[in-house]
C-alpha cells in the first residue's frame, strides 16, 4: 500500500526533525515484505543478461532500505510521540502542495456521486493484446480474454511488430476467435530500431496511436501477451473507467499489484491508488495519450514503462489505480525477462490471482481524490507506528490495525525506487 503524495509541509513541520527528509508512508499490514519493487526488475531488464543484475540491485536496495528505515523509524517515532502529531491537521497532511501544482485545484471537481460512476457501457473502449512472435502465449492470452463476459462491449485488436511472424500469429488469432471480430494491427518494420528497449517502445507507441488516433477508442486496455486474466478482468476495467473520466489526478488503471503476494494480499474487493505505474494489463483514456504522444521518444535509452514512471513531468503527481489482488497473471516462462527457475520467476509464482466472480466489484468512488485523501489520512492516524521493517513482519496476522512504516529519505530509497531526489520534498510510499 502506498501513500501517494508528496508534502512539502511535513518537511517544515516544526515537530519533525528537519534534517531528515522523513515521511510517513502508510504501509498497510498487507504490503510489508514486498518493498522489493518486483516489477522494476521485470520491466527494466530488457534482455536476459540484465536480469541477474536487476535482482542483485533489488537485494542491495532492500538491505539499504532496512538500515535507512531503522534510522527514520526512530526519528519519526520520537517526533510523532513527543508532540501533537502533525497528522492531526488535515490541511497540513493532505494539502499535497506540490501535487496541486500539476493538477490544479480548480481542475479537481467535487466528486461525482457513485451513481455517476457506473460501469462503462458498450462501444467506448478497446482491448489491445500486444504480441511479438510467440504463438503459444498469444493463444493462451486470447483464450483467457475470449472467456470474459461482456466482451461484446469492447472492440478487440492484436498488435504485432515482427513481420516474419505475422502469418503464424494471425493464424492463431483467426482460429481463436470465431465469435468475435479481432482486428490484427501490423507495425511496419523500422530497420533503424535495433535495441530491444527501443523496439518495444516503438511497438507500444504504434499500439497506442492505432488505438486512440486510428480506431478512436476513448479508453484502451493494453495486455501483454504473456498474461492470463482473472474472471472479472474486464469488469474491473469497466467499473474503474469512470475514475479516469472524473478525476484528473488519476491517469491509469492497472490490473497488477507488485506487492500482491498471496501471503499478504487477500481482499479482492480492495483497490488502492499509487503513484507508481504497475503496468501488466492497464488502461488509459484518450486525453492521456494526447498528452503522451508528442513526448514519446523514438530512440529511448530506457524501457518505455520506466520512462512513464520517472520521465514524464505531467504524470508526476498523478496516480494509477491498482487492485490489492492482481487481475492478471504472468504465465510465460521463456520470455525475455522471465525464465523458468529464475529469481523473478520464483517471485511471480508467489503472486495472488483474483478469483472474484464477474460483476461483484462495486462502488469504487472511494478512490476519487477528495474521498481518498481523508481516508488515507485516517489510515495514517490510526496506524500503529512500526520501528523498522523486521518488526513489521512480527505484526503480520497479530494486529487488526494498520502499520505505518516510515520510509527513508529519497536518496536512501533511490535504489528501491529510483525517483530523482528533490530537495525539500518528501516521498511517501514505495
Ligand atoms: C476522447 O473521446 C471522447 C469521446 O469519444 C471525445 O469526445 C474526446 O474529444 C476525445 N478526446 C481526445 C483528446 O481525443
UniProtKB/TrEMBL annotation:
Could you say which EC number(s) this protein's record lists?
2.4.1.101
Q: EC top class, in one word?
A: transferase
Question: What does the record say about its membrane topology?
Answer: Single-pass type II membrane protein
Which pathway or pathways does this protein act in?
Answer: Protein modification; protein glycosylation
What reaction does this enzyme carry out catalytically? Answer: N(4)-(alpha-D-Man-(1->3)-[alpha-D-Man-(1->3)-[alpha-D-Man-(1->6)]-alpha-D-Man-(1->6)]-beta-D-Man-(1->4)-beta-D-GlcNAc-(1->4)-beta-D-GlcNAc)-L-asparaginyl-[protein] (N-glucan mannose isomer 5A1,2) + UDP-N-acetyl-alpha-D-glucosamine = N(4)-{beta-D-GlcNAc-(1->2)-alpha-D-Man-(1->3)-[alpha-D-Man-(1->3)-[alpha-D-Man-(1->6)]-alpha-D-Man-(1->6)]-beta-D-Man-(1->4)-beta-D-GlcNAc-(1->4)-beta-D-GlcNAc}-L-asparaginyl-[protein] + UDP + H(+)
Cofactors per UniProt?
Mn(2+)
Which Pfam families does its entry note?
A: GNT-I
Tagged with keyword Transferase: yes
Task: List GO terms (cellular component aspect).
Answer: Golgi membrane
For this UniProt entry, which segments traverse the membrane?
20-42
Which key words tag this protein in UniProt? Glycosyltransferase, Golgi apparatus, Manganese, Membrane, Metal-binding, Signal-anchor, Transferase, Transmembrane, Transmembrane helix
Compartment(s) where it occurs, according to its Swiss-Prot or TrEMBL record:
Golgi apparatus membrane
What Gene Ontology terms describe what this protein does at the molecular function level? Answer: alpha-1,3-mannosylglycoprotein 2-beta-N-acetylglucosaminyltransferase activity; metal ion binding
Asked if the Swiss-Prot or TrEMBL record annotates the protein with the keyword DNA damage, the reply is no
The family this protein is said to belong to: Belongs to the glycosyltransferase 13 family.
- Protein name, entry field: alpha-1,3-mannosyl-glycoprotein 2-beta-N-acetylglucosaminyltransferase
Amino acid at each position: 500500500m502506498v501513500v501517494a503524495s508528496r508534502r512539502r509541509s511535513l518537511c517544515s513541520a516544526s515537530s519533525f526533525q528537519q534534517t531528515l527528509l522523513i515521511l510517513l508512508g502508510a504501509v498497510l499490514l498487507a504490503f510489508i515484505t514486498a518493498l522489493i519493487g518486483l516489477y522494476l526488475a521485470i520491466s527494466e531488464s530488457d534482455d536476459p543478461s540484465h536480469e541477474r543484475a536487476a535482482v542483485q540491485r533489488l537485494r542491495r536496495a532492500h538491505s539499504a532500505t532496512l538500515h535507512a528505515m531503522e534510522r527514520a523509524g526512530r526519528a519519526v517515532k520520537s517526533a510523532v510521540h513527543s508532540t501533537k502529531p502533525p497528522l492531526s491537521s488535515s490541511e497540513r497532511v493532505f494539502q499535497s502542495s506540490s501535487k496541486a501544482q500539476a493538477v490544479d485545484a480548480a481542475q479537481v471537481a467535487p466528486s461525482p456521486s457513485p451513481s455517476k460512476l457506473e460501469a462503462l457501457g458498450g462501444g467506448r473502449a478497446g482491448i489491445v493484446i500486444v504480441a511479438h512472435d510467440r504463438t503459444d502465449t498469444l493463444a493462451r492470452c486470447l483464450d483467457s480474454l475470449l472467456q470474459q463476459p461482456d466482451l461484446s462491449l469492447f472492440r478487440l485488436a492484436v498488435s504485432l511488430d515482427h513481420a516474419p511472424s505475422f502469418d503464424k500469429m494471425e493464424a492463431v488469432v483467426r482460429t481463436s476467435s470465431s465469435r468475435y471480430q479481432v482486428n490484427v494491427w501490423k507495425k511496419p518494420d523500422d530497420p533503424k530500431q535495433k535495441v530491444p528497449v527501443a523496439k518495444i517502445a516503438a511497438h507500444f507507441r504504434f499500439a497506442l496511436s492505432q488505438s486512440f488516433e486510428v480506431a478512436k477508442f476513448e479508453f484502451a486496455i493494453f495486455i501483454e501477451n504473456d498474461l492470463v486474466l482473472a474472471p472479472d478482468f474486464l469488469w474491473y476495467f469497466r467499473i474503474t473507467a469512470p475514475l479516469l473520466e472524473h478525476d484528473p489526478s488519476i491517469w491509469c488503471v492497472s490490473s497488477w499489484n507488485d506487492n500482491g503476494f498471496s501471503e499478504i494480499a487477500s481482499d479482492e474487493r480492495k483497490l488502492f491508488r499509487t503513484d507508481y505505474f504497475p503496468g501488466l494489463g492497464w488502461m488509459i483514456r484518450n486525453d492521456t495519450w494526447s498528452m503522451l504522444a508528442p513526448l514519446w521518444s523514438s530512440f529511448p535509452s530506457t524501457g518505455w514503462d520506466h520512462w512513464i514512471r520517472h520521465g514524464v513531468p505531467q504524470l508526476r503527481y498523478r496516480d494509477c489505480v491498482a487492485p490489492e489482488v492482481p487481475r492478471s497473471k504472468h504465465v510465460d516462462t521463456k520470455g525475455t525477462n522471465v525464465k523458468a527457475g529464475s529469481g523473478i520467476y520464483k517471485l511471480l509464482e508467489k503472486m495472488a490471482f483474483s478469483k472474484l466472480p464477474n460483476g461483484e466489484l462495486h462502488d469504487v468512488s472511494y478512490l476519487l481524490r477528495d474521498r481518498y485523501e481523508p481516508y488515507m489520512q485516517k489510515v495514517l492516524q490510526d496506524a500503529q507506528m512500526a520501528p523498522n521493517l523486521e518488526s513489521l513482519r512480527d505484526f503480520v496476522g497479530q494486529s487488526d490495525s494498520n502499520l505505518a512504516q516510515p520510509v527513508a529519505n529519497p536518496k536512501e530509497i533511490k535504489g528501491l525506487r529510483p525517483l530523482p531526489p528533490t530537495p525539500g520534498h518528501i516521498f511517501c510510499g514505495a
